[in-house]
Amino acid sequence: MPQQTTSANTRAPGAPGGLHLGRVLGAPVLLAWSWFIAAGAITLLFSPWIARVRPDLGPASYVIGFVFAVVLFGSVFLHELAHAVAGRIAGYRVAVVELNVWGGFTRFEPREQSDSPRAAWTSFSISVVGPVVNLALGGVGWLLLDVASRGSVVWLLLFGFVFANLALGAINLLPGIPLDGGWALQAVFWRITGSPFMGTLLAAWAGRIIALGFVAWAVFQPVLVGQRPDLVTVMWTTAIAVMIWVSAADAAKSATRARRVETYDMRKVIQPAVAASWTAPLSEALGYVDEATGRSPLVVVLDESGIPYGLVDRRSAQQAGPSAQVHEHVRPLGPWIGAPADITAPHLLESLTHRPKTTHCLVLAGESLVGFVDLQEFFDELLDH
């Protein structure tokens, strides 16, 4: 499934460790350690079927089962490669392709793109191309089944290849996030409503309904035909349902937060501020009153070369004498960046990706200092409201 990220390093931020298999389209291909858990589970599930078809193979059925797991994840890689190629054609830079216990994902570098019909259809195309490739591979494999000798090892692996690709394609086209069909549905809702955030919320709810449907199918489908539900089937479908539910909830939460960032009013956290030279009289700096707010602004002290150095410590300044200068009562700033007065929350966050340890933002109108942002307060405001 395609996703976005802000890093093109060998290891995706927040991604689990794993084996670096190489690079494709300039991006690393990672095999997460969790893949080996999936490979073991697939081997144990597939091997009994092989033993029934070819009892003469004995323990070798487990070797073939593991080979099938490798073939399955080869299909997953082609699925993700299709996403990567489609994204690259659309102008996105691929950050990482990862294979893991749930299959895999492709992450892209963010790109400035307007919320336009074209952007929505681009997202739709990138989403559906992976499942379409799996369905095409399954169809080709189906045609080749007649070529292989029925019951041979090649036939068994080819049959598994057909089943895996058709299942991957069909399941991933289900219209609910986090499945590819869900992101395609998100693009459709985006096109209809004009809002990618609303599209994500609606498609995430569809994903939750699909998660419940997986569990309902495992429990009630056998009952409808007069059988008892199979415990193993209920367990693995429940695991898939939990993954879908949690991922859908995360997508909805991220969309809500992104929408909040998009519409956030920076005036809530911009405090009025003025600049004072290193040797400016303290009483004069503290006596300035901002006409717009009627309040005394923060005083940012410039060092002797004119670079912002710190803030006047008003508590310390209360004990100052009449001839005190601002530099005698200054509290040094932490790492800071400058930003124009019309800065928006998304642009500020984008700037901070290159300066992750920044603690303050100085707001400028032309070359004049007019405001100050405590970035911790800014983050708290975004997260808490």
Beta-strand residue fraction: 15-25%
Write down the Rg: 29 Å
**Helix amount, in percent?**
40-55%
Main structural class = alpha/beta
Give a count of the beta strands, DSSP E runs of length 2 or more: 12
**CA-CA gap between termini:** 30 Å
Q: What average pLDDT do the residues reach?
A: 82
Order of SSEs? EEEHHEEHHHHHEHEEHEEHEEH
- Outline the biggest β-sheet: 7 strands, mixed
> Spatial order of the strands in the main sheet?
9-8-7-6-12-11-10
User: Based on CA inertia axes, which overall geometry fits?
Assistant: elongated
Low-confidence stretches: 4-16
In brief:
This protein has 385 residues and is of the alpha/beta class. It has helices at 34-53, 60-89, 117-144, 153-172, 180-193, 196-224, 231-263, 282-286, 314-317, 345-352, 375-384; strands at 2-4, 18-24, 27-32, 94-100, 103-108, 271-276, 298-302, 308-312, 330-332, 336-340, 360-365, 368-374.
Description:
The structure is a single chain. The chain is an alpha/beta fold and 385 residues long. Helices cover 52% and strands 17% of the residues. The strands form two sheets. A seven-stranded mixed β-sheet has the order 9-8-7-6-12-11-10. The chain has a five-stranded mixed β-sheet with strand order 1-5-4-3-2. The longest helix is centred in the middle third of the chain and has 33 residues, at 231-263. Mean pLDDT is 82; it is low at 4-16.
